[in-house]
Amino acid sequence: MRQLKLIVYIVMSCLSLNTYAQKGPSFIGLAGGVSLPTGNWARANYIVSTTQYVNDPSGFAANGPLGSLEGAYFFSKHFGAGALFNYASYKTKDIATLSGGYRESFDVDQVTTTADSYKSWSLMPGLYFDYPVAARLSVTARALTGITNTSTPLITVDVEDGGIDDGRFEQKRASKTAFGFIAGAGLSYKIKSWLA
To answer: By CB neighbour count within 10 A (0-12 exposed, 13-18 middle, 19+ buried), where does 75 fall?
Structure first.
């Protein structure tokens, strides 16, 4: 499975390079890679105080695959309009640590925790800029605004104490849609013109 994921990432990266090497600034591109959660979202610990589970901001999010589809139509020599759609999924890591937090908090013999994945997507239209500075080199920029949505994993907790099944409870999936933006600038170098 890991080999298949690696092959998919390599192919998507190559497709992304190919689409940016088209003749003219208008483009459609696919890109892929790995997204690396940071901060509290990537933390994986728990805090127990006097047998009470304390609200800890740990997100337990692992690295995950990210894919995007982007395109722009240039209506003038330097300016274009386009959009970006991306999707990412993040598995929940260190479930044993989360189970340990529940076990200590509930003061029971065993807790088994399972969780699915975080999911996130964005749709952002906006403006693109391209200014050639040499035969194959261009200064590029984009300013995109739109919506982004993220949902948390469904977490299932099975509790057992003294050999007796004390039941199961679930932390339901939650999601939030919010305003988002992307702005950036860079250099683009055409390796080869694919269209004559």
So the answer is: exposed
Contact in structure between 103 and 157 (CB atoms under 8 Å):
no
Q: Are 188 and 161 in contact (CB under 8 A)?
A: no
| Segment 136-190, tens digit of pLDDT | 899 999 999 999 999 999 989 888 888 787 788 888 999 999 999 999 999 988 7
Residue 95: HSE in the Cβ half-sphere, 13 Å Cα cutoff = 15
What is the rounded CA–CA span in Å between residue 123 and residue 159? 40
Distance CA 112, CA 167 (A): 11
Q: Are 89 and 117 in contact (CB under 8 A)?
A: yes
Which residues have a Cβ under 8 Å from the Cβ of 85 and sit 6 or more positions away? 68, 69, 70, 121, 122, 123, 124
Query: CB–CB of 117/88 below 8 Å?
Result: no
State pTM to two decimals: 0.70
Helices (H), 61-177: 95-106
Alpha-carbon span 92 to 6, nearest angstrom? 20
